[in-house]
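Customer escalation, tier 2.

The customer says the design service returned an amino acid string that "doesn't look like it belongs to this structure." They asked us to rerun it and document both sides in this ticket. The original structure tokens are below, unchanged.
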């Protein structure tokens, strides 16, 4: 079983996300990560889906997604050649004694402290999943109150674009 990142260009209409996600659930595939947003042209949205399955299953998933009416194009991104990022917000427990230590760790990861309270800091970081996990592992001993992650978003490197004819 391998991790596969699909980039799906769709018509920006109500119900499209539900139909795409429903296809995965009806076929018994678990979605590891899902993000969606409007593209440079507000007539289209881009859905990024991460799924763990074997090679035969990903071929079937792509074929099934391509059959959906509002889907323009489906591309499996090469995880070695794509720019894959995720945003995470982490609220960590701190006091005056640990605030500087946490700030040092945040600086090493080029993350940002976006909120400071008397007993907590909120950290924002964008990066690949392994970098995010490394930050989480280092600040976990201080006490994590909350974590929220956006899910993976990705683009292929270079001049290519998903906007080709179907």
């Amino acid at each position: 079983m391998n991790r596969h990142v699909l980039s799906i260009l769709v018509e920006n209409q109500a119900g499209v996300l539900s139909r795409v996600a429903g296809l995965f659930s009806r076929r018994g595939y678990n979605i590891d990560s899902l993000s969606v947003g409007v593209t440079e042209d507000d007539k289209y949205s881009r859905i990024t889906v991460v799924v763990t399955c074997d090679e035969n299953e990903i071929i079937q998933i792509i074929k099934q997604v391509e059959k959906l009416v509002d889907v323009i194009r489906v591309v499996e991104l090469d995880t070695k050649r794509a720019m894959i990022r995720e945003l995470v917000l982490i609220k960590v427990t701190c006091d005056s004694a640990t605030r500087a230590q946490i700030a040092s760790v945040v600086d090493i990861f080029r993350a940002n402290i976006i909120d400071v309270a008397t007993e907590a800091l909120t950290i924002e970081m964008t990066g690949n999943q392994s970098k995010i996990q490394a930050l989480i592992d280092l600040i976990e001993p201080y006490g994590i109150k909350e974590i929220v992650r956006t899910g993976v978003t990705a683009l292929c490197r270079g001049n290519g674009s998903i906007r080709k004819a179907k």
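Tier 2 assessment: The sequence is consistent with the input. The chain has a mean pLDDT of 94. The chain has two domains: 2-77, 83-153. Sent an explanation to the customer and offered a walkthrough call.
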